[in-house]
Write a structure and sequence with these properties.
Mean pLDDT: 88
Order of helices and strands: HEEH
Distance between the termini: 47 Å
Radius of gyration: 21 Å
Structural class: alpha+beta
Low-confidence stretches: none
Strand order of the largest sheet: 1-2
Number of strands: 2
Amino acid sequence: MKRQIPGVSEKVLIQQLRELEADEIVHREVYREVPPKVEYSLTALGVSLNAALGPLGDWGRENMAHIAAVRGALCADKAGKTKAGAMGGTL
């Protein structure tokens, strides 16, 4: 999982998995071997949540280019205002 979520720390990943386990969305299976092995799987509740989130993921994929363009324009606008302000300009 950690390889598929860029930038997530192991600490944050473990905290999130423990919360999902407490909410019975994932099941944690510990194997007593060396090195220790832990596997996570979705519970029935997790499977139903995954199905419910599918359309949201579809929406995100369909609209990501637009969202990225808007964010890029906002960042460029803010950078321009900051630069103008630093030079004593008025907007």
